[in-house]
Amino acid sequence: MATLSLAASSAARRPALLPPRLLAARAMASSLFGHVEPAPKDPILGVTEAFLADPSPDKVNVGVGAYRDDNGQPVVLSCVREAERRILGNLNMEYLPMGGSIKMIEESLKLAYGEDSGFIKDKRIAAVQALSDTGACRLFADFQKRFLPDSQIYISTPTWSNHHNIWRDAQVPQKTFTYYHPESRGLDFSGLMNDIKNAPDGSFFLLHACAHNPTGVDPTEEQWREISHQFKVKKHFPFFDMAYQGFASGDPERDAKAIRIFLEDGHQIGCAQSYAKNMGLYGQRAGCLSILCEDEMQAVAVKSQLQQIARPMYSNPPVHGALVVSIILNDPELKGLWLKEVKGMADRIIGMRKALKENLEKLGSPLSWDHITNQIGMFCYSGMTPEQVDRLTNEYHIYMTRNGRISMAGVTTGNVAYLANAIHEVTKPN
Ligand code: PLA
C-alpha cells in the first residue's frame, strides 16, 4: 500500500508539446492566460483522438471501452430505439428535479440492491441521478470531502485512470492498495487482504463491483465474502463503482453479487451506476449515485446534501437518457429484450477473447495467452509493455492504452487475425 506517487499528479500538469508556430506566439504574448499550459492528453480518450487522426485504412481502435458490433460499428440497442419511439412526440423536456428522475432512480436501485430489497422498502438509500458513472463518482468524492474532510480514499493498483483525477479534483487524499499480481496475471489476494487489514479503521475503499478495469480480474464469490468480512472487522466503507453491470457475465443480477454480499453482511455502502455500457447510452450520461444510510431520516438528509452539491455544478441532470432507462426497466417486455441484448454483447466479447487467443496460438506464439480468456468484462490486460504498445500503434496502426489494455469490445471477426499477428510480432522473443 502506498501514498499515490507525486509522479502521477505532476504528470497531469506537465505541458504537452506545442508546435513551434504557437510557441513563438506565446512567447510574445503577455496576456491574462499566458501562463496556461496545454493539458496532457487523457490516457484513454487521447487514444481515440490519435486513432481518428490516422488516415490508414488498416487502423484498429481497441482503446476506449465502447462496444462495437462484429462489423466494427457502434450499436444502439433495439430496446433503446423502442423507448425513444415512445418518447418522441409524447413526452416533454422539462427540467428534472435537482436529484433527477425519481422513476429512473427507483429502477436503478432495484438493479443494484435487488428487486425486493428491504433497504429500498425502508427508504434507507439516499440516491440521485448522476452524469453517468463518472458524475456519480465525482458527486460522492465531493460529498466525502465536504462531510468527512479528514478521510482518504483507497484505490486499487491499477485502476481506471480517471479515478485518480476524480478524487484529486475533489481534494480527497489518495492511497493505493494491492490488487493485481503481474506474474500470474490474476488477483493478488493476500496482498489485497493485508492492505485492507493495515489501513486505519473506518477507511474508504473504492471497489470495482465487477469487470475490474483495466485488469479484467475479479475476486471470486468466496474471496468477496472474505473481503466483506474483513471490511466489517475494520469498519471500512466500501464505495462500489459498477460501470459494467451485465457486461461481466451477461447477467446483471450475477454481476451485482459482490454488492449483495456486502449488503447481507450489514455494511453501509455507496454505489455508482452507469447505463453507458450495459444500455449503450454512452453519450447520454445516464447514471445513479446511491448511499445506503442507517435510517430514512439520515437518507433524506444525505440526499438533500447530494442535491446541494449538484445544484451549483449542473443544476439538474439530463432528461433524455433518464426517460430511456426508466421506460425500458419499467416495462417487463422491454426489460426482457434489454437482458437478451446485454447478454448478446457480453457473449460476443467472450467469443472474441477465444478467437484472439486461438489466433495467437495458431501463429505459434510461445507465450501463454490463457489470461485473455480467464479475464472478464470489456478489457484484456494483455501484459504488453508501453514500448510494445507503441510498436503496435506506429507499425500496425493499432490504437490502445499504453498500459497494454485491449478493449475486447473493439475486436471483430474482421480484425482479430490482424490484431493477433501484430501482437505476435511485437511480443515474440528475438
Ligand atoms: N468507472 C469505470 C471503472 C470505467 O471503466 C468507466 C468508463 C467509468 C467509470 C465511466 O463511465 P461513464 O461513461 O458511465 O461515466 N471507462 C471507459 C471510458 C469505458 C472512459 O475512460 O471514460 C474506458 O475506456 O476505460
Automatic annotation (TrEMBL):
Source species of the chain: Miscanthus lutarioriparius
Entry's family note: Belongs to the class-I pyridoxal-phosphate-dependent aminotransferase family.
Classification of source organism: Eukaryota, Viridiplantae, Streptophyta, Embryophyta, Tracheophyta
Catalytic activity: L-aspartate + 2-oxoglutarate = oxaloacetate + L-glutamate
GO biological process: amino acid metabolic process
CDD domains: AAT_like (cd00609)
Assembly notes: Homodimer.
Record's signal peptide: none
Protein name, per record: Aspartate aminotransferase
Record key words, sorted: Aminotransferase, Pyridoxal phosphate, Transferase
Aminotransferase class I/classII large domain span: 58-423
Gene Ontology MF annotations: L-aspartate:2-oxoglutarate aminotransferase activity; pyridoxal phosphate binding
NCBIfam families: PRK09257.1
Extra facts: In eukaryotes there are cytoplasmic, mitochondrial and chloroplastic isozymes.
Documented EC number(s): 2.6.1.1
Cofactor(s) for this UniProt protein: pyridoxal 5'-phosphate
GO CC term (a single one): mitochondrion
Pfam families: Aminotran_1_2
